[in-house]
Specification:
- The complex is a heterodimer of chains A (130) and B (129).
- Chain A has 130 residues and is of the alpha+beta class.
- Helix content of chain A is 51%, strand content 16%.
- Chain A has 2 helices and 4 strands, in the order H-E-E-E-E-H.
- The longest helix of chain A is centred in the C-terminal third of the chain and has 37 residues, at 93-129.
- Chain B is mainly α and 129 residues long.
- Chain B contains 3 helices and 2 strands; from the N terminus they run αβαβα.
- In chain B, strands 1-2 form a two-stranded antiparallel ribbon.
- In chain B, helix 1 packs antiparallel against helix 3.
- The two termini of chain B are 20 Å apart.
- At the A-B interface, helix 1, strand 1 and helix 2 of A face helix 1 and helix 3 of B.
């Protein structure tokens, strides 16, 4: 039963990490048109790997993508400078959508493993029932 | 009568192997997008059966490094599907892991099935249904 609860813990950590990623992705998409917005990114890290400790996944610190902001020409924009340009955001919709889709897929895989662990525990307990 | 039947022991060992394998596969899936993570898997149950439990280090102090097999002699080793390595060093392929988890699930069902059947036979040997 110990392994099963560790399995569930690992799957749950995976789901938490993937949903954090999905949240950042939707924040980025929501702010795609915010002037000066830098997209947020997060990395995944393995937490300590001793056996008593669990090999779970955790998200690292949230960082801002330091790549160049998009320069947009619009002299009528309130933020536009002398030359008529202002800083847009550096969110690339295509990347965000792909990222969100990948997070979704990994989340589902984790969920499936959680379900499987639950079913295995259930069938083990069924042995006791008779 | 010897109540420690070989078949029951075998079945429970197989169930333990399948559960541990599910744990390892779940860890792999949780790390599906972690850069540099290497996918792992257990050796086949038949191999464990033939060669006996794998080497396990004993920790006598809290500061000792934990390595080798776990208490039951199952050791997780690196196992990568062909072509699964991505540029960031991660070697988890979700499809491959799904196959492995289905495999483990099947072994677990098999083990529990054998266990239950053996118990049924014992029970009918005792004249109860």
């Amino acid at each position: 039963m110990d392994e099963i609860s560790r399995t569930m813990k690992a799957a749950a950590s995976g789901m938490a990490a993937q949903s954090a990623r999905l949240r950042l992705s939707s924040e980025n998409i929501a702010n795609a048109d915010t002037p000066g917005y830098r997209r947020k990114i997060v990395s995944f890290e393995a937490t300590m790997l001793s056996r008593d400790d669990d090999r779970v996944v955790a998200t690292g610190p949230v960082r801002l993508d330091q790549s160049e902001l998009l320069r947009i020409y619009d002299p009528s924009h309130p933020l536009a400078g002398e030359d008529g340009y202002y800083d847009g955001s550096n969110v690339n919709m295509m990347i965000e959508i792909a990222d969100a889709r990948e997070a979704n897929r990994s989340y589902e895989a984790n969920l499936k493993m959680f379900e499987q662990a639950r079913q295995m525990a259930g069938s083990l307990l069924d042995l006791l029932r008779r | 009568m010897d109540t420690r039947l070989t078949i029951l022991r075998l079945a429970s060992n197989l169930a333990a192997h399948a559960t541990t394998r599910t744990e390892v596969v779940t860890e792999n899936i949780a790390h599906a997008d972690t850069p540099g993570y290497r996918a792992r898997d257990l050796a086949d149950f038949s191999e464990t059966l033939r060669e006996g439990p794998a080497f396990a280090a004993r920790m006598t102090l809290p500061g000792h490094i934990d390595f080798g097999a776990d208490g039951r002699g199952f050791e997780a080793i690196e196992a990568t599907a062909f072509g699964a390595e991505t540029p960031n060093g991660n070697t988890v392929s979700l499809e491959d892991q799904m196959m492995r988890s289905a495999d483990a699930r099947q072994s677990h069902d098999l083990a529990l099935g054998v266990y239950r059947k053996t118990m049924d036979i014992l029970r009918s040997g005792l004249g109860r249904n």
